[in-house]
Write a structure and sequence with these properties.
The complex is a heterodimer of chains A (269) and B (342).
Chain A (H helix, E strand, L loop, with lengths): L4 E5 L1 E3 L20 E3 L3 H14 L5 E6 L5 H10 L3 E5 L9 H19 L4 E5 L10 H9 L3 E11 L3 E8 L2 E8 L2 E5 L11 H9 L4 E2 L19 E6 L8 E2 L5 H14 L4
Parallel strand pairs in A: 1-4, 1-6, 4-5, 5-11, 6-10, 7-10
Antiparallel strand pairs in A: 2-3, 7-8, 8-9
Helix pairs in contact in A: 2-5, 3-4
Chain B lengths: L2 H4 L5 E5 L1 E2 L2 E2 L2 H16 L3 E7 L6 H6 L4 E6 L8 H15 L3 E5 L2 H14 L3 E5 L1 E5 L9 E8 L4 E6 L6 E5 L16 E4 L11 E8 L12 E5 L8 H12 L2 E4 L1 H5 L20 E5 L5 H7 L4 E6 L5 H5 L2 E4 L2 H16 L1
Parallel strand pairs in B: 1-4, 1-6, 4-5, 5-12, 6-11, 7-11, 14-15, 14-16, 16-17, 17-18
Antiparallel strand pairs in B: 2-3, 8-9, 9-10
Classes of the chains: A alpha/beta (269), B alpha/beta (342).
């Protein structure tokens, strides 16, 4: 029995040190380079490991984004994904976490229709741009599948069920889900591999299917700016931190005394 | 959602997170900011508790400002299970129609929010550090929730609106708001909501909980965090950091380099691929201050850096920088702190 996985990926700015364009109030695209969102690497790796454990399985990657976002799908092929799908349509622009989770869920249904049953969807805990962590659980809601977030380990997986460890603030929860299911994973779950040479060759040649709203039967009222309940009202840069004060002293002891005085002064003792 | 429908949604709700049988104090921070919003709206402040054996907390919650507490109390709800909790919350919200719903930006709070928003066909924001009531952008509404939050690792501050859908949902970053002041003797209305988890078609089973051995403070809910990085040189270094943290009543954090080296578990990692914190005091020990680390702690109120290298980014960014050898400085600081405590 195969165990088929879909991994959701996002192309995001490679650095979070972004600037705001003072004219438009939008994130300035100038000089920005883009890459696969850092947490997504762990989701991708986990999908590959499951497929390699269970013969006859496949691992597919799915992304939503502008034309250049196909780079993350080529990266997914280079690492070993069997197939990739690009949800690419101007109508998706401006989607918030609600609309994005709907579009990705529709994409997953389309993958099922084309390629066969999907047992598990893997997302990352969050992206490095929006950082909400809401898209994964949202997809599960649209599909009416169970989900667990902050997964740090898959203990067991069969074609019908999954047992995972969830990182909690005060320890670790163990939960079991019936498949199909969705998990959002944290960095601790694995050590991602690098692309192989063979994978890189394959990724260059791959033809990447592009799906528009009509292809995934997405309702216009649930996608893009019009379909997003939330909007960004304004963006600003955080206030700059003022130059700090050096705690000086002839000896380390003196510095320690002054440090404790400061802590006391700030009522932090 | 039409205006007539929006106007049916009344009241500010705060989610009281019960985690492994304990009420987390984030609720009292939500009551502080939620109370201000409720006052401005002229609407009621309520709390919703999901779990088991909840009655013991109602007195504290009423005294902290809640007028109503919805108690979803059942042995089957003793532990957090995503699909079950979302189902019982969604049913209650559909019936009671709250205007705003605040949850803590904790593991449970974040897990609930994305699923709940999709089920309720509404919008959600995350990690609020400021909350206010104001006008809408595209509508006549005057009572939209303005959620201000850091994104891009704290490099961009965004204000999010969800003016045409209700309830507006947001998680709120812990340790940003003070705890609500108590009014001794104040009471309120407790509403027991009948729930039967056995009737909910859940596909998730809670198996067990393995608590972390040491009863350490968690970085996300501590008002002081002391972190160690590569500069510690080895895993033993965290013994010194733990002593320091213990003396100051702080939680122990770490840089990615320290976690990747296997010196301390991932749960302690502060930064882009770890967790983000916003304590009153953040002490970075032997952490150079790469942009990825700053993404997780740059919003801290006061930053202290201790490092041998006076020119590293963390030393330049910190409110107070101390050029010193950690292994020499920290024991001296601990001894000095102890003097003041006695």
């Amino acid at each position: 029995m195969p165990l088929n996985v879909v991994v959701c990926l996002k192309q995001t700015p490679a650095t979070t040190a972004v600037q705001i364009d003072p004219q438009t109030g939008e994130i300035s695209g100038q000089g920005l380079t883009y890459a696969i969102s850092p947490f997504d690497e762990y989701a991708l790796e986990e999908g590959l490991r499951i497929k390699e454990r269970v013969p006859g399985s496949w691992s597919a990657a799915l992304t939503m984004g502008p034309p250049q976002a196909e780079d993350v799908l080529r990266e997914a092929i280079a690492r070993g994904c069997d197939s990739v799908y690009h949800l690419c349509d101007d109508a998706f622009k401006g989607s918030d976490s609600y609309a994005t989770s709907y579009i990705l869920a529709q994409g997953i249904k389309k993958i099922e229709a084309e390629k066969g049953k999907v047992h598990l969807v893997i997302c990352a805990k969050q992206t490095n741009d929006g950082e909400t962590g809401q898209v994964g659980p949202g997809i599960a809601a649209w599909l009416a599948w169970p989900n667990v977030s902050f997964v740090k380990k898959i203990e067991e997986i069969s074609e019908t069920s999954l047992r995972v460890q969830r990182m909690m603030e005060d320890g670790v929860d163990v939960l079991e889900m019936e498949l199909p299911a969705l998990i959002s994973v944290v960095k601790e779950i694995n050590e991602p591999r690098l692309p192989s040479l063979k994978g890189k060759m394959a990724s260059k040649k791959a033809l990447i299917p592009k799906w528009q709203a009509g292809d995934i039967s997405a309702e216009a009222s649930k996608i893009g700016i019009a379909g997003s309940p939330t909007l960004v009202w304004k963006r600003s840069s955080p206030p700059k931190r003022g130059g700090g004060v050096r705690i000086e002293g002839a000896t380390t002891e003196e510095k320690a005394v002054k440090f404790v005085e400061k802590i006391k002064e700030l009522k932090l003792l | 959602m039409a205006n007539t429908e929006i106007n049916q949604y009344k009241g500010v709700w705060c989610y009281g997170e019960v985690r492994h049988g304990k009420l987390t104090p984030t609720l009292f921070e939500l009551l502080e900011v939620g109370g201000k919003l409720a006052k401005e709206l002229g609407e009621k402040l309520s709390v919703v508790l999901v779990g088991h054996e909840l009655d013991k907390w109602t007195k504290d919650i009423f005294e902290s400002g809640a007028e109503t507490i919805y108690l979803l109390d059942n042995p089957g709800l003793a532990n957090f299970v995503d699909d079950v909790y979302v189902k019982v919350l969604a049913d209650l919200i559909a019936k009671e129609k709250p205007n705003k719903f605040l949850l803590p930006a904790s593991i449970i709070g974040k897990s609930i929010t994305g699923r709940l928003a999709a089920v309720l066909n509404t919008g959600a924001s995350a990690d609020a550090t400021e909350l206010a009531i104001g006008s809408g952008k595209n509508s006549e509404t005057k009572n939209a929730l303005h959620v201000t939050r850091p994104t891009y690792g704290g490099n961009v501050i965004a204000t999010i609106l969800c003016e045409n859908h209700r309830p507006e949902i947001s998680t709120v970053k812990p340790m940003v708001f003070a705890r609500a002041q108590k009014i001794p003797g104040k009471t309120g209305e407790g509403i027991k909501v009948t729930v039967n988890p056995a009737e909910i078609p859940s596909k998730t089973k809670f198996v067990n909980f393995n608590p972390e051995e040491t009863a350490e403070l968690d970085i996300a809910s501590a008002d002081k965090v002391i972190s160690g990085g590569r500069g510690l040189g080895n895993a033993e270094g965290f013994k010194v950091i733990r002593d320091f943290a213990h003396t100051l009543g702080a939680a122990v954090g770490a840089s990615r380099a320290a976690v990747d080296a296997g010196w301390i578990p991932y749960r302690h990692q502060v930064g882009l691929t770890g967790r983000s914190v916003r304590p009153k005091l953040y002490i970075a020990c032997g952490i150079s201050g790469q942009v990825q680390h700053l993404a997780g702690m740059g919003q801290s109120e006061t930053i202290v850096a201790i490092n041998k290298d006076p020119d590293c980014p963390m030393m330049k960014l910190a409110n107070f920088s101390i050029e010193a050898d950690l292994y020499e400085f920290i024991p001296l600081a601990i001894a000095e702190l102890k003097k003041h405590k006695n």
